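Hello, quick one for you while I still have it in my head. A protein chain has come my way and I'm curious about its shape. I'm sending you its amino acid sequence along with the backbone structure tokens. I'd be grateful if you could look everything over and explain what you see. Here's the protein in full, and shout if anything looks odd to you:
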Amino acid sequence: MKWIAMCAALLSATATSAYANQAGDDYDVIFAPSPQAQRAEQGVLIGLERYINKTIAVGAFGTVLVREGNEDWQQAEVPTSVLLTALHYIDANTIWASGHDGVLIKSTDGGQSWQRMMDGYQLLEMELDWLQQREDYLTEALENADDEEQAYEYEYLLDELSFLVQAASIQQEVGPTKPFLDVFFIDNQHGFAIGAYGTMLETTDGGSNWSMVNERLENPTAFHLNKMITNERGDLFIIGEAGQLFRSEDSGANWDLLDSPYHGSLFGGLFDQQERLWVYGLRGSVFVSDDNGDSFRQIDANTRYNLNSGTVMADGTVVLAGHSGTMVFFDPQTLQPQRYEHSSNVPLSDVLQDAGNQMIMVGRSGLMQFIYPATAR
């Protein structure tokens, strides 16, 4: 999970408790509408996305901010107050956002209004069903194993599954808390949502129905899944905790576990204009692949701060942003880094290029801007 999302979750949880005390015992953050705020632009924001001339930011208390061109930001009406973590545009009107407590929301009017399409209670039931089916499958496979090596593998998988079953039982008592950390759609109908503890859902009907497909990934210890991206030819990639990297060349039906260059958490990834795959994460770790993830080389980022997000500027410059206001700009030809620090010194959770050499970021202090020095380009 992104460290910035964890920090924001703590802030959100504290304030949510205050709202709950005011609203009474019936308050549920999943179903409570996002409160309208006079200074929503200064609140905790996590995700940032743009489609043509429309920019959207999401964050704590279900906040969704929408900006057309260079106009003022407007807060949308949202039917949940959970911490929202990521955005995905399908087209100018259709947008998805993922959030904590198992929430997925969708807009069909360009972000002005939103509908809740998944919540944590549905996710809990779905997970229990999946765990039972998985246990039945592995038990039968163990009974029919052809040799000791195969039997040992199924025993190992059953042992790992038992921990997930125990956790799910506890979760039933506590209630929904599991976050989705990203949502990604191949087209208007076919999409995925990924998140904590190896959670992966798939829909083939535009989000009306979802199914749990955790078993498609070789992830028995249920590491967090942080980010899903694609390249120009449509291959899908999942980037996660403990250096987990997965690739699918058939629209998510099958996934290969890639040989990761790093065993610490990776928080994000992107493809640059040369179709090189970049992954990044803890302690300023940055790796680039020239062969679609088959191999990687480490790139010096000139920082030891966690890197949470990235974008590609119009001229091909790769920009990574992270803790303590850190922003690293990589020359598209030499990959040499230029490091800057935003004056706020707060963790940055997402970044985009705005007009010209102006960058727009979101984080603990809300919406922020940074002018990339013209002499550096």
About this structure: The CA atoms of residues 266 and 281 lie 4 Å apart. The first strand starts at residue 45 and ends at 51. The helical segments are 3-23, 120-143, 148-174.
